[in-house]
UniProtKB/TrEMBL annotation:
Coiled-coil spans in chain: none
UniProt keyword Oxidoreductase, yes or no: yes
Pfam families: FAD_binding_3
InterPro entries assigned to the protein according to its UniProt record, in alphabetical order: FAD-bd (IPR002938), FAD/NAD-bd_sf (IPR036188), PheA/TfdB_FAD_monoxygenase (IPR050631)
Species of origin: Methylocaldum marinum
Domain of life assignment: Bacteria
Protein name as it appears in the record: FAD-dependent oxidoreductase
Molecular functions (GO terms): FAD binding; oxidoreductase activity
Length: 323
């Protein structure tokens, strides 16, 4: 395919939906501050080690400061401990279905103290693989490079990162602004969903319940939306509002989660190029090229994509954040 270069005005196409850049560490700082100001208690340095969820709910935890284990009885448990946490593991396999998919390439994610090299996000499809340029702040930018699953971060000294970004993102008259690399990690591309997201008094929220590829930046957004819905259901429950059915949590959240999974995996298909297996599948490659051209040439396709990208849905629970 000859070079395709186009600008997708997703804010305009989505009807003016706002896309906030809220770096995750800033969001967490603000959430902690707000929670403490509202007299909430957070036990830092405390690791949950076991979830008991039969005949009432209890959490066993290890207090790293006092160096001892304790138990806390509770009405409900919100399992917000990420993909590798313990809460999902306490759900018996007979009570849940796991849906997962792994891809044959990964992304090298880079965070650098470098101002953005363009005033918009760039997704570049190069024969060496995908490269991305994401805005974070006026001093910090994030970049992605598609790599093989067998690759190792040690194969990517800073100089090689900048050379490869320059090569894959570069076009005439454009310059990549370099800076100090703050973080480099290889992220496997995978999708994961557990259904239902509730087992008895345990409610899973965020990455503990679902993992999504970084294509389209939906993971943190889904985690926020889960928490928003779960929080409202808890408040309704304690206020005695009969319409606040905690048992409906999973069925409220799962449709949105699958919409996001569908969007992210279709987008990843368009972005993924030139790994060995893919090069041999020319039919798939032609389909993905066709999707890219439709995005450029078909206003209906571009509008639909933009609304999903910016999270511009009718539901007031939808906001889009970039991490
Ligand atoms: C490089 C990169 C870029 C990303 N970019 C975006 C983006 O642009 N937009 C977007 O929406 N998403 C993005 N994501 C995804 C997003 O970061 C995750 O989806 C989000 O962090 C999920 O939040 P969470 O709170 O569910 O889990 P986590 O962020 O994993 O938090 C879980 C917390 O639980 C704690 N914990 C774990 N086990 C225990 C235990 N046993 N006891 C006590 N505490 C425990 C952990 O220490 C951690 O603090 C990105 C991810 C990566 C890796």
């Amino acid at each position: 395919m000859s070079q395709v270069d186009f600008l997708l005005e997703y804010t305009q196409l989505s009807g003016g939906a706002m896309h906030y850049i809220y770096p995750q560490q800033e969001l967490i700082k603000d959430l902690i501050q707000n929670f403490e100001q509202a007299h909430g208690t957070i036990r830092f340095n405390t690791e949950a080690t076991f979830v008991i969820n039969e005949n009432g709910a209890e959490v066993e935890y290890y207090d790293k400061k006092q160096k001892n284990s304790k138990r806390m009885a509770c009405d409900f448990i919100a399992g917000c401990d990420g993909f590798h946490g313990i809460s999902r593991r306490s759900v018996p396999s007979t009570h849940a279905r796991i849906f997962e998919r792994y891809y044959d390439s990964s992304w090298l994610a880079i965070l650098a103290e470098a101002p953005p090299s363009a005033n918009h996000i760039i997704y570049a499809l190069h024969p060496n693989g995908f490269a991305g340029h994401m805005l974070r702040s006026d001093k910090v930018s994030r970049y992605y490079l598609q790599v093989k699953n067998t690759d190792d971060v040690n194969n990517w000294p800073d100089e090689r990162v900048w050379t490869e970004l320059e090569l894959r993102l570069g076009k005439e008259g454009w310059r990549l602004i370099q800076g100090e690399i703050l973080e480099k990690q290889i992220i496997p591309m995978r999708n994961f969903v557990i259904e239902p997201m509730q087992y008895q008094r345990l409610f899973l929220a965020g990455d503990s319940a679902h993992i999504i590829t970084p294509a389209g930046g939906k993971g943190m957004n889904l985690a926020i939306q889960d928490s928003l819905v779960l929080g409202e259901l808890f408040v309704g429950h304690y206020r005695g509002d009969f319409s606040a059915d905690l048992n409906a949590y999973s069925s409220i959240r799962l449709p949105d989660i699958w919409h996001a999974q569908e969007f992210s995996s279709s987008f990843l298909d368009i972005l993924s190029r030139s790994n060995d297996a893919f090069e041999t599948d020319l039919f798939t490659r032609k389909l993905n090229e066709s999707r890219l051209l439709q995005l450029r040439d078909n206003p209906l396709v571009a509008t639909d994509f933009s609304k999903k990208y910016a999270g511009a849905m009718a539901d007031p629970h939808h906001y889009a954040y970039g991490n």
